[in-house]
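Example S7 (structure tokens).
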């Protein structure tokens, strides 16, 4: 059931972004409070994804310089 749900979410996102039957791909909110809450949640998730990408780029470019500091802590 979980893979099906994930596939449906991906399919709906693609439909909304490409413009193929956008009515089916996007959720319609009629309540103004729900619209604001949805936009707020989206922007929070977008900022967290950007922060994760920035941290990934930082640690990927730093290479092994942080290995001595973080290495013993992360070893099991």
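Recovered sequence:
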């Amino acid at each position: 059931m979980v893979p099906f749900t994930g596939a449906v979410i991906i399919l709906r996102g693609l439909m909304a972004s490409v413009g193929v039957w956008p009515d089916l791909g996007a959720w319609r909110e009629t309540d103004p409070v729900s619209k604001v809450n949805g936009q707020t949640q989206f922007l929070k998730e977008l900022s967290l994804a950007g922060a994760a990408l920035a941290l990934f780029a930082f640690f990927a470019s730093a290479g092994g310089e942080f290995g001595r500091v973080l290495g013993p802590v992360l070893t099991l």
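Notes on this example. The radius of gyration is 19 Å.
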